[in-house]
Design brief:
By secondary structure, the protein is an alpha/beta fold. About 30% of the residues lie in helices and about 20% in strands. The strands form three sheets. The chain has a seven-stranded mixed sheet. Strands 2-3 form a two-stranded antiparallel ribbon. Strands 10-11 form a two-stranded antiparallel ribbon. Helix 2 runs antiparallel to helix 4. The radius of gyration is 16 Å and the shape is globular. The termini are far apart.
């Protein structure tokens, strides 16, 4: 396997956020900062560079200073289309990089050792996925750049589910235990889908910031 610092991080900022009232869920504020900013900050220290995976006007992500890679057609094919587009972009723009790590843009507490643990669980030529007590998180995964063409063919054939792709690849898993925040166990892949999730994350963030350094 490769070293984490030679991996490109891909933050998936897609989705229509219907349960949050529409718009870009990843731009909702958490502790005065966009959700996407929290994810980028946690991933930035673990990878060589990053891109944002999103459709629509890329200008709305300009404050983050990262390239924005749109899904390949067909549109609305889900996260796997974003993965395929990111793999193709990395293959064309990052010579010598053989792996990417994808993370969802609505999970502000992703582990600080996510990339290292996925690398440790993986094997040559195969993706590796994160698992926690709540199940497998296939969008939090390590992907070999070399499968870009395979994914493109699968999309053309109507393939849509990242979780099913991981199953077909017999992807190894890295298990992440709950993290403790103010004495409470929290799933490190807690994701924000509804306003009440955002409120819960605000409370968790306040507790995390109040811990002695």
């Amino acid at each position: 396997m490769t070293a984490p610092r030679t991996i490109i991080g891909v933050v998936r900022a897609g989705g229509r956020s219907s349960r949050m009232g529409g718009g870009d869920k990843c731009l909702e504020l958490l502790g005065g900062r966009p959700l996407l900013g929290h994810v980028i900050a946690r991933l930035r220290r673990q990878v060589a560079d990053m891109v944002i995976s999103a459709n629509g006007d890329p200008a709305r992500f300009a404050p983050f200073g990262l390239p924005v890679v749109a899904d390949s057609p067909p549109e609305l094919a889900g996260p796997i289309a974003g993965v395929e587009a990111a793999l193709a972009w990395v293959a064309a723009n990052c010579p010598g990089v053989s792996w990417i790590v994808t993370v969802p843009g609505d999970s502000p507490f992703i582990p600080g050792d996510l990339v290292a643990r996925l690398v440790g669980a993986g094997r040559a030529g195969t993706m590796a996925v994160a698992r926690s007590a709540t199940g497998v998180h296939p969008v939090a995964a390590l992907w070999p750049v070399g499968i870009a063409d395979d994914l493109k063919v699968a999309l053309a054939d109507g393939f849509r589910r990242v979780s099913r792709w991981a199953e077909l690849q017999s992807a190894p898993e890295a298990f992440f235990a709950p993290v403790e925040i103010d004495g409470r166990p929290v799933d490190p892949f807690f994701n924000i889908n509804r306003p009440e999730d955002l409120a819960a994350a605000e409370a968790l963030l306040a507790r995390e910031r109040s811990k002695p350094s």
